[in-house]
Amino acid sequence: MKISELTLFTTNLEAQKHFYTQVLELPLVASDAEKFTVKMGVSSLSFVKSERIHPAHFAINISSYKIQQALQWIQKRTNILLCEGEAIADFSNWNAEALYFYDKDGNIVEFIARKDLDIINTHLFSTADILNISEIAIVSTDNEAIYHQLYEMRPIEVYDGNFERFCALGNAEGLFILVNNTKKKWYPTSEEAYPADFYIKGDYNFAFINGAIITEKV
């Protein structure tokens, strides 16, 4: 499942632009007083100025065997979020490892190295190892209803979990992470999860605004 474009909202446009372009060193491809866009491998990430937001949770695929190098790289730039006391989360059931950090809006950003993708290279970790936006969390009180709305757009498989509290839909290239916030909090911080507004383009094209999927606005 491909995520070509992800648009989030920010109350700190300039701080976010500095973070993504200067701290994470991602290429800036567009910018004005209301919005900016950076490249994340084959995906693009945009932030639009807003008066109020709920933090999002999204993931970025990196080269498959570079999580330790990625940790060293990110620790030089910002603080990481511990995963049950560890710097790196071991998702053996997904054949993957991940690390987490905040951006300037408190969005939880994840670098995830998926061995199933088998992306191999020999250079030291850099932005060249940032492959694509691979996950966006969709928070609601009814994961099954969200699943059926997505499935009506285009059939999608359950990758892991169940509709009760947590369900990942898609594949190693791209996933929708369905979170029932009456039963699950954000990982790894255990913060309350609230529905974050976003627009997405790729294999699925829709807006998620005020906790509802909207297709006609995309």
Overview of the structural elements:
- The chain has 218 residues and is mainly beta.
- It has one domain (3-214): 2,3-Dihydroxybiphenyl 1,2-Dioxygenase, domain 1 (Roll).
- 14% of the residues lie in helices and 42% in strands.
- The protein has 3 helices and 16 strands.
- The protein has helices spanning 13-23, 67-75, 143-153; strands spanning 3-10, 28-31, 35-40, 43-49, 57-62, 80-81, 89-91, 96-102, 108-114, 130-140, 158-162, 166-171, 174-180, 198-202, 206-209, 212-214.
- It is globular and about 45 Å long.
- 39% of the residues are buried.
Q: Under CATH, the topology is which?
A: 2,3-Dihydroxybiphenyl 1,2-Dioxygenase, domain 1
Share of helix, binned: 10-25%
Mind telling me the CATH class? Alpha Beta
Count of beta strands: 16
Question: What is the succession of H and E elements?
Answer: EHEEEEHEEEEEHEEEEEE
Low-confidence stretches: none
Rg calculated over all Cα atoms: 16 Å
- Measured distance between first and last alpha carbons: 18 Å
Percent of residues in β-strands: 35-45%
Mean pLDDT: 97
Instruction: Give a quick account of the main beta sheet: strands, pairing sense, barrel closure.
Output: 9 strands, mixed
Provide a count of the helices: 3
What spatial form do the alpha-carbon principal axes imply? globular
- In the CATH classification, which architecture applies? Roll
- Specify the CATH homologous superfamily: 2,3-Dihydroxybiphenyl 1,2-Dioxygenase, domain 1
Structural class: mainly beta
Q: What is the total domain count?
A: 1
